[in-house]
Amino acid sequence: MIEINSQRLLSDLRELAKHGKVGTGVDRPAFSEADVAARRWLEGRMREARLDARIDRYGNVYGRSSAASRAVLIGSHSDSVPKGGWLDGALGVIYGLEIARACIEQKSAAAVDVISFQDEEGRYAPFLGVKSFCGVLDEAAPGVPDALAKSLFSAEPARVEKTRHLAYLEAHIEQGPKLEAARRRIGVVTGIVGIRRVRITARGQADHAGTTPMGMRKDAGAALLRLANRILDAFAGMAAADTVWNIGVVEVQPGAANVVPAQASMMVEFRDMDARLLERMLAALRELAAQAGRGPVGVELAETARIEPAPMDARLGEVIGEASRALGEAPLSLPSGAGHDAMIMSQALPSAMLFIPSIGGRSHDIAEDTDERDIVLGCRVLAAAVEKIAA
Amino acid sequence: MIEINSQRLLSDLRELAKHGKVGTGVDRPAFSEADVAARRWLEGRMREARLDARIDRYGNVYGRSSAASRAVLIGSHSDSVPKGGWLDGALGVIYGLEIARACIEQKSAAAVDVISFQDEEGRYAPFLGVKSFCGVLDEAAPGVPDALAKSLFSAEPARVEKTRHLAYLEAHIEQGPKLEAARRRIGVVTGIVGIRRVRITARGQADHAGTTPMGMRKDAGAALLRLANRILDAFAGMAAADTVWNIGVVEVQPGAANVVPAQASMMVEFRDMDARLLERMLAALRELAAQAGRGPVGVELAETARIEPAPMDARLGEVIGEASRALGEAPLSLPSGAGHDAMIMSQALPSAMLFIPSIGGRSHDIAEDTDERDIVLGCRVLAAAVEKIAA
């Protein structure tokens, strides 16, 4: 039984949060001064734990155990969004540090490698570090050369080793309200949802809103409002329990009370674990847009983002769930609506994620927080899972 | 029979359009250099026509006939919107000049006073000049002190004289497509529509659009989109033939594809000649907004503009209609969806308006234009109407 040191876990989390501290949160975008200092501190803590640690030229902090030839890889990211929370990313990294350290101290049969990936949040290029680690980084992609130019590090990129790494485990705050609402303390992530994002633009004609009869208008605004409602209706009718959708951007031009809108556009985004459902929703949206375009207003549709669902390894999830139940806590299975390093890692290794609650569902804000008892419980569950996976 | 000189009419219109010329249009906002030059030119042309002319301190150019103690007042405005059309306002002023001039030359029993009001378009304060002329100007209203500070003129304000002025007549381009669509060349304006303008604001909560379940959102954007559709449906169901409405402004914040909107607002405007209908529409809108506000999103409504309908004098309208028919042209009765100086004048004098077609319905743009034959016809109709009114 790997015994984690809860005081040391919390103290390391608080210590890491001093780097880029902003009120109760942190400001630690990739390769900022605070991020680089945090990564150097992490490297130092890994070495103190007797891990073989280094920072590669992408900024990944990688601590390798010398205790065994096979190891469980635990990690997340220590960069943050501007004025973000103290636990987003940091939690999964410090869980890895604490469990690896406990394994070494307690001469456990399990060995743990720890990693803090760089730029998960996409200051330069989202998932920069984990993509490099998995060997799927396009070095010419937007932001990648800028990130490299900003890096102070020169070590060869750390890489996933399929003959060494048994699994990738990532713990994270939920960033949503489901655990809190269900009064559960441990979430087992079924997968990271796929995303479709579409920009719809209606093009009509600006006219005087007093002198142009209703029947003679080419009102791009009204056409878009009608279409938006039909999309909301259609999605509500075809959604599964965890499907989410959002119209987060609406723009109407020229934007005057007395001018019939010449152009109007919106961004429609939807997410689910089921890629076929996403495709059905996209097809319905295309059909509704095409119908809307048969009137006096032209309607164009452009897909601006497409991310496929990344299911987590079901057996690893079951191990985490069993570990949770063994510690007296019934876990909640749920998809992750947000992206995580595990999304990329799952293409290279069997991967699993554990969630702990976010108070009020808040994240990407300095108000983000989690009860310390939940933080400690999550680490105990993950340590127990590591022991089973290594065995 | 007052015979107008069509070549002189067109030549004066072209001459006036040289002041502030921009392509095929004019840029002549109130008290701009071009506007002041145009007003001085107008004053000169009035004097050449043997009118007693002056520019008052509000910039109104007023030409008074000395031929009789009672006169028909004809006018409009010679200021323009930025990069506006050459006929908007100018047409009604030059009609007045030509008819007054013809009356004097032809020793007609009819006498005509001519006026070009200042700032109808509201560079400083909409209807500045006509409000001063009617004695209803609030000198402390926004923009009025700025306009006065800009004025180069010092003459005492010209004022309406109810014992002298038999009626106010204003000719204008339609600024809409109705005459063209109906293949009519003369419009008799039943009145200037009333306007209600309302800002509706929905306030919810920003949340992660991936991690927040649909049922736990306070989505201000979706609430506003739903409400907008209900308003469009309700208005379509209760509108009269000439009612118009517009949602010209829609704003959604923070405005990111992956963030549930925290706030969303729109401007809803509607116009009709029937004040009771406008009030019924406003009541329906208030009820729909109140219903929408019973969900998780708060909805506020603020009336931002209220202009009462200004009916034109029916008997004067009939005189214009008869004059049109006598010249072989069946007139179209229609409301004006845009505001005009006659809206204010109708509170002081029996007032009427004549419309001539706008090519393609275009206005407030340098593309604005009207067939010269229609310009000439409109002036002939108005001259014939003046003769009947004076008789």
Notes on the structure:
The structure is a homodimer of 391-residue chains. The first copy, chain A, is α+β, with helices and mostly antiparallel strands. The first copy, chain A, starts with 5 loop residues before the first helix and ends with a helix. The first copy, chain A, has eleven helices and 17 strands. In chain A, the strands form four sheets. In chain A, strands 3, 4, 5, 6, 7, 8, 15, 16 and 17 form a nine-stranded mixed β-sheet that branches. Chain A has a four-stranded antiparallel β-sheet with strand order 11-13-9-14, covered by helices on one side. Chain A has helices at 6-17, 33-48, 90-105, 128-134, 144-150, 178-182, 220-238, 275-292, 314-326, 341-345, 372-390, and strands at 21-22, 25-26, 52-55, 61-64, 71-77, 112-117, 165-173, 187-192, 194-203, 207-208, 244-253, 259-260, 263-272, 298-307, 310-311, 332-336, 351-356. In chain A, helix 3 (90-105) crosses helix 11 (372-390), helix 7 runs antiparallel to helix 8 and helix 9 packs across helix 11. The longest helix of chain A has 19 residues, at 220-238. Chain A folds into two domains: 6-193 and 309-390, Aminopeptidase; 194-307, Alpha-Beta Plaits (2-Layer Sandwich). The radius of gyration of chain A is 24 Å and the shape is elongated. At the A-B interface, strand 10, helix 7, strand 11, strand 12 and strand 13 of A face strand 10, helix 7, strand 11, strand 12 and strand 13 of B.
